[in-house]
Amino acid sequence: MTTADIPFRELPSVTTARSAPRLATLIGMAVGPSGAVPRQLGLNRRALEQHGFAGRVGQTMVIPRRDGATLVAVGVGDAPTPGDLRDAAAAFVRAAGRHGVLACDLVDAGSSTQADASAVTEGLILASYRYPGITAKPSMSSSIESVTIFGSASTRPLEAGVRHGSVTARAAVLARDLANTPPAHLNARDLEVIALRLGREYGFGVEVFDEDALAEMGCGGLLGVNRGSEEPPRLLKLTYSPRSPRGHVALVGKGVMYDSGGISLKPSDAFHVVMKMDMSGAAAVLSTMTALRELRCRTAVTGYLVCTDNMPSGSALKLGDVLTMRNGKTVEIHNTDAEGRLILADGLSLAVEEAPDAIIDIATLTGAAMAALGPDVAAVLGSDQRLIDRLRNAADSTGEPIWQMPLESGRYRKLLDSNVADMRNIGGPYGGCITAAIFLSEFTGDVPWAHLDIAGPMKVDGDEAWRSKGATGFGTRLLIDTVLGW
Ligand code: BES
Ligand code: MN
Ligand code: ZN
């Protein structure tokens, strides 16, 4: 897959039908830990249990037959939530081997909701994701062409759920592709081209600010970080404006296309290969924008993608340098690897000027967030508890776990004190996720604001439920859900 293909990638199609299509070669059936076992499986509960299948979420058992499609018992647990169904659908897809045409009976017309069908659809599409890579031979992208959700008259809520889940999953796949793409194949100008194409395709405006415009605007943070790079920076402003909107939310994404650390160079250990993913926040914001028109979002949304490399060179930012940010505040540089907050400062300042109802920023900001919460859970901090609670609720329903950390400005703001500027860009050795957020809070004015630090969950080291190895697209569905529910 080349960069030009990213916006138009083919995904498995998910549809509903009364019964499994004749062409399906693999059919999944929901089985709980108790109660009836679908007769078609040809095995009773005891036989399933003898083979170690207990009906738990994530379990599958493939049952070959002499004639007809291969069957799969898909564990769904007791009284499955949408989250359980997303994971069960993902497990089904992971059991599919080389099968291309699939069908599954995981929702029920009588009792299942739109949220159930949407979650199943997301699990099917997201678990079948493979990053195709850039290889000589056409690579091992997923073999799955289509999945039919059957077993019911396709009721309106189920069809609406499948449509919804197809859109949110497609958006998250886009975020994954962008983050998985190597840095030389996706710089700030490449992202501009992609954003312009996506804007035309999915109905949002794209305004581009290049280095001259940024200088005129006084975006000293973004220009400062960009100083060491051969590649010019870009600030992309995306606007989705529905008729008579009921609210306005601004989303700000960190778009560090590659983070070398700058003069504070990162050590060259294997861990840093993933710094091509340091634009995962910007990818989540851009991907969110692609879903809004199709999901008939009634909230106006403005997205800011703040994009540059962080590189060392003769012209790079030095320790001790002082930058003046868009809102006039000055920052003394103590570590050039704390670059995300410098570029977000300008993005946040610009967002504040539009006086939205809320600002949410999303960034692969600190290793400290990962140290605190582990690799799977994102940190959320901010100035407005209602906004944070909205995000926590959205995270519960999309299955993207976040955990609130305290901002503690009163206690820890002094860790950012500088002798020569309004603040320095790093705090002390401890509480790095918090001091980073306090730094950001200096640029959010009086607008209710929340910050998502996704350094941990931006990637996963191996396939795990709906998350496939590599970039996860974390935050995309969470942001979509948040603005839809505004
Ligand atoms: N992009 C990194 C944070 C990161 C680390 C994301 C690991 C994903 C995985 C960020 O720019 C960074 O380098 N942060 C520094 C801040 C420090 C210098 C205060 C960090 O966390 O070490
Ligand atoms: Mn860094
Ligand atoms: Zn970074």
Overview of the molecule:
By secondary structure, the protein is of the alpha/beta class. It has 2 domains: 11-152, 3-Layer(aba) Sandwich (Leucine Aminopeptidase, subunit E, domain 1); 174-484, Aminopeptidase (3-Layer(aba) Sandwich), CATH 3.40.630.10. Helices cover 33% and strands 20% of the residues. It has 14 helices and 19 strands. It has helices spanning 45-50, 82-94, 114-127, 156-180, 188-202, 211-217, 220-226, 280-292, 340-353, 367-373, 385-398, 409-412, 432-441, 476-484, and strands at 13-16, 26-31, 60-63, 70-75, 101-105, 146-149, 205-209, 234-240, 248-259, 300-310, 322-324, 330-332, 358-363, 378-382, 402-404, 423-424, 449-453, 459-460, 470-471. The chain has an 8-stranded mixed β-sheet, with helices on both faces. Strands 1-6-5-2-4-3 form a 6-stranded mixed β-sheet, with helices on one face. Strands 11-12-16 form a 3-stranded mixed β-sheet. The protein is elongated, with a radius of gyration of 23 Å. The mean pLDDT is 96. The chain binds ligand BES, manganese (II) ion and zinc ion (ZN). Residues 259, 261, 310, 337, 339 line the site of manganese (II) ion (MN). Manganese (II) ion (MN) is lined by residues 259, 261, 310, 337, 339.
